[in-house]
Amino acid sequence: MRDPVTAFEYPGDWVARCTSPERLRLAGQGLAVLTSSGAVLLRGLSTGTTAAAAAKAAVLSLKTDTECVTVILPCGIAVDVPACGRAGTGSAVKYGGDYPADVTAGLEFRAEAIPGANGITVTFGEGIGRFSRDTPRYRKGTPAVSPPALSCIVRSVQEALDVIGGSGCSVRISAPRGTRIAEQTLNSRMGVKGGISVLGTTGLVEPWDDHLTESTMERVAAADRPVLTTGRIGLRFSRLLFPDHEVILIGGKLKEALDAARGDVILCGLPALILRHIDPQILDGSGYLTVEELAASPQFPAIVAALLAEFRQLRPRVTVVLINRKGRIIGELS
């Protein structure tokens, strides 16, 4: 059985240990994660998926009331999401799955749809954060909405228009409790003010907890020269850069994964988590608030070269490959 989200082929003994056919079916659909013990942990839905569901419900309700919509996630999986649509307004509540630390779980997204001429306009209101300064990817005042999440929202709106026979509309999305919830996130450190971010590289939220970590480390320990990566972008490009290696998504568990590996390891991904692992004080005195901003500076190559050389002394069997969001290598020490 293969995980359609990560393409990981679950070992047969993991599958045999699972005593819940229904949960095993969810793992096969990509809506859950099978662990080595046979336990199955449910994936949650991202803020982007939830916003898309609310928007689709709002547009569908211009013609008929709705209680549930189907959203095509950025990873290609179709999921049914409870979403209430009435008279041009839509509402959906974010599902957290088996991720106990998801502070946005239970957050309601609302959408208002107004029929219009040809084309789709999506705007963001109350509770959706905006960038308080220019960054390498976003300008000041831009809503904190990632490109995959926005694409998912627009696609969902277009699907709804196709169903009701509409030629265009404008949709405004809000999260009334978003400003308060954002205080529990890292948004302020990322330069996002006034609300939460609307994100979702795959459209799903991984159930990162101690149970999943145990199974992940078993995979690391069993692999021959694995490629370890910290996130979805790293996962995608690591498979392209290292097609003959097993690529394992480890999230923020860098130390645990490197300790578990039994031989040579490639650590590949975006620079933020990797460089913060190597030097937790990397931003101190730099004048930058995020590693992404530092990575766009002229000083970055020299800083990275020195850090990776020092890291090689501590972890001589680890090859570090840093990439940007387009998959280009921006730092490497082999």
What's the short version?
With 334 residues, this protein is of the alpha/beta class. Helices cover 33% and strands 23% of the residues. It folds into 3 domains: 12-42, no CATH class; 45-204, CbiD-like; 208-333, CbiD-like domains (Rossmann fold), CATH 3.40.50.10720.
Can you count the helices? 11
Taking all Cα atoms into account, the compactness measure Rg is 21 Å
Q: State the oligomer.
A: single chain
Low-pLDDT stretches: none
Percent of residues in beta strands? 15-25%
What is the molecular shape?
A: globular
Count of β-strands: 17
CATH topology of the largest domain: CbiD-like
Which CATH class of the largest domain applies here?
Alpha Beta
Q: Report the end-to-end length measured between terminal Cα atoms.
A: 34 Å
Give the structural class: alpha/beta
General description of the model:
There is one protein chain. With 334 residues, the protein is of the alpha/beta class. The chain folds into three domains: 12-42, no CATH class; 45-204, 2-Layer Sandwich (CbiD-like); 208-333, CbiD-like domains (Rossmann fold, 3-Layer(aba) Sandwich). Helix content is 33%, strand content 23%. The chain has eleven helices and 17 strands. It has helices at 12-17, 21-29, 47-60, 147-164, 178-182, 210-222, 232-241, 254-260, 271-278, 291-295, 300-314; strands at 32-34, 40-42, 44-45, 66-72, 78-86, 89-93, 108-115, 119-124, 130-131, 168-174, 192-193, 204-205, 227-229, 247-249, 265-269, 318-323, 329-333. Strands 4-5-6-7-10-8 form a six-stranded mixed beta sheet, with helices on one face. Strands 14-13-15-16-17 form a five-stranded mixed beta sheet. Strand 5 (78-86) and strand 6 form a beta hairpin. The longest helix has 18 residues, at 147-164. The two termini are 34 Å apart.
